[in-house]
Design brief:
Gyrase A, domain 2, four-stranded antiparallel sheet, 26% strand, eight-stranded antiparallel sheet, alpha+beta
């Protein structure tokens, strides 16, 4: 599964810079533009993107302001960092263009979805049986006896997706609806994109994978599939990281129990209070970079805009997320169109 872009970049730097002498008497110059020019919604968006880049450089790398020069001209942002540590350039490029978003989504309960999964399994069985049967008719020598093929096709969905049910067969309370081996996630995605299968589910349902393997799986090969409920007219998350005005990563003793304390602005606080009030005894999915990080169950309305999130973060991952939140989110995706390292 996809890993956090910052952690991946650190790994790249660690291997690529081994044995090399760090150079700090060079300037790094880079020009970035929006990934798609029609994504700019207001004239001030490019300036906002420049402000986010500036904050990320300070929060992630502690680069003094006097070493950062940003120029905005129409749709281009030109950045110069003086006296750069060249071993950090790959990481810097990933950080300033990173478009990862923190989102809070309402969810479906497992018990509300398990029936649809059974219907999907039945339809897939009919589809695969018909396709396989047609292949057998066309070929002189079948790949396997018909009774074997029928047996293999009895549960095409459930042979790779393990529903979350109790020993008594009752759906477990959660928005997590199943576990799937990492190697089979693409097959599940393919199934759910089929028109015959998509039409079986509620139109406001979409599926998200967990970012990390299931914590109780010793093999660390199983990933969680979650049922997200889309409740907004624009199909976007009802609340995201743009409303965060303060964020701090904290830990318990021995760096255990990592959590992120958040404070939202007034608009975010009102939205958050409404969401939690309407979802008591239901899960809220905390999604980062398109993957579920945690899914706490709401016990009561949360007013005032102060909340916390957990999700098996390491302290490094939590601090990276905090730095992203403190810097603000980019208004659109960025791409690098020019870069150079020059002698001072």
């Amino acid at each position: 599964m996809k890993t956090n872009f910052i952690i991946a970049a650190i790994i790249v730097v660690a291997f690529s810079s081994g044995g090399c002498t760090t150079k700090k008497d060079f300037d790094f110059k880079v020009t970035v533009t929006p990934q798609r020019f029609n994504s700019i919604s207001t004239p001030g968006d490019v300036n906002k993107a420049a402000e986010v880049i500036n904050k990320r450089l300070k929060y992630f790398f502690s680069i003094p302001q006097e070493k950062i020069k940003l120029d905005v001209a129409e749709n281009k942002i030109s950045l110069t960092i003086s006296n750069i540590d060249t071993s950090k350039i790959t990481l810097i490029k990933n950080v300033i263009t990173g478009y990862d978003k923190l989102e809070f989504w309402e969810t479906y309960e497992n018990m509300e979805i398990v029936g649809y999964l059974s219907k999907a399994n039945k339809v897939l069985r009919e589809i695969e049986t018909n396709v396989t049967g047609a292949d057998i008719v066309k070929k002189t020598v079948p790949k396997a006896p018909a009774d074997t093929i029928k047996k293999d096709n009895q549960n095409p969905l459930f042979r790779i997706l393990s529903p979350r049910v109790t020993a008594q067969g009752e759906p477990s309370p959660s928005c997590m609806i199943g576990l799937v081996s990492g190697k089979d996630t693409s097959e599940i995605n393919r199934y759910f994109k089929m028109d015959q299968i998509k039409s079986l589910f509620p139109p406001d349902l979409k599926f998200y994978w967990s970012m990390n393997p299931y914590k109780y799986d010793r093999s660390k090969s199983l990933y969680e599939l979650h049922a997200i409920k889309v409740t907004t007219t624009n199909k976007q998350a009802p609340i995201d990281g743009s409303v965060i005005i303060s964020a701090e990563a904290t830990t318990g003793s021995n760096n255990s129990g990592v959590k992120i304390d958040l404070i939202m602005d007034s608009e975010g606080a009102r939205t958050w209070a409404g969401i939690t009030r309407e979802n008591i005894n239901r899960c809220i999915a905390v999604v980062y970079d398109g993957y579920v990080r945690s899914y706490p169950r709401v016990m009561s309305e949360i007013s005032g805009g102060s909340t916390e999130i957990t999700g098996d973060f390491t302290i490094e991952e939590a601090n990276d997320l905090v730095n992203i939140l403190k810097s603000g989110e980019l208004p659109f995706q960025l791409k690098i169109i020019k870069e150079q390292i020059v002698k001072e």
